[in-house]
Amino acid sequence: MRAGSRSRRRALNLIAGAGGALLVGSRPRPSLAQADGYPNRPVRLVVGYPPGGSGDFVSRVAADELSKHLGAQVLVENRPGAGSTIANEIVAKAAPDGYTVLNAGPHALTGSLYPRLPYDGDKDFIPVTTLAVAPMIILVNNDVPAKNLKELIALAKSKPGVLNVASSGNGSTPHLAAALFERVAGVKFTTVQFKGGAPAAASTIAGDTQVMFSTPPTVMNFIKSGRLRPLAVTQPKPSPAIPGIPGAADEGLPDYESTFSFALYLPTGTPAPIVDRLHAAAVKAMRGAGVTEKVASQGMDVFTDASPQAFADALKREAPALRRLVKDSGAKLE
């Protein structure tokens, strides 16, 4: 299963009414005639992550390419905070006309971590397509005797709770990846929470914590400089974007998979022609010349869904496992 990533959600109503504008709550729904001219003005791409991070990077790459394929400017708007729920709410309550788009991780995770939200992740969004997906990297301090994942598992089993794992925040994707690893591998770490990946990495380098699960951009320079030792990526097979690090299945853990992803969503009520237009443009954008290489520079792989329906179906299939992962991790945010 994928923690973040290519997690998917159930299909929502994509069909606009036959007459004029219909109502979705208090919002007017665009007619099919209006959808025919889409887009005829700039499109706002709202992202719940601050400038400089992986989510912002993918948003800006996608926006540049989407502008070419939509024939209208796509502008990135950063609205970070509260695990992307601020950005999610903005889009959930926006007019369903295709001019406000969300780039976010899976709503099943967000909804499980934040029990009281001003929107419904299952009902207020139409999934369009995934843009990029990536595993995390399992690393250890250089003084840890484990040279590979099998040895780390054996060491952790011999000393339950003795190894400290650095987490980049309660409910973060690395935290959830570590929690899933404990369950699948049958080991027990002591989790130490930090406010972000950078202090978590610093702690692991110093040896105050011994193990770390991290998104690639946070630790690639430390790997290259030899300050942290990578053991595996958090998916069965190696990632083309992170060469030289084995997959979990190659290290004897075939049932372990935890990734993070970024995907496009529209407000419920957006007419199907607009959804399909954005989907087609996004697929072309992410498969354009040089885009795969740009995304790979951040340790991520380009991934797009065959259709909005295929994305929605996959979200629905994977949501129960994501909710169980959050429950098992003990993470809960307000």
Give your account of this protein's structure.
By secondary structure, the chain is an alpha/beta fold. The chain folds into 2 domains: 183 residues, Bordetella uptake gene, domain 1 (D-Maltodextrin-Binding Protein, domain 2), CATH 3.40.190.150; 115 residues, Periplasmic binding protein-like II (D-Maltodextrin-Binding Protein, domain 2), CATH 3.40.190. 37% of the residues lie in helices and 19% in strands. α2 crosses α9, α4 runs parallel beside α11 and α6 packs across α11. The protein is elongated, with a radius of gyration of 20 Å. The N terminus is likely disordered.
Kindly summarize this structure in a few lines.
The chain has 334 residues and is an alpha/beta fold.
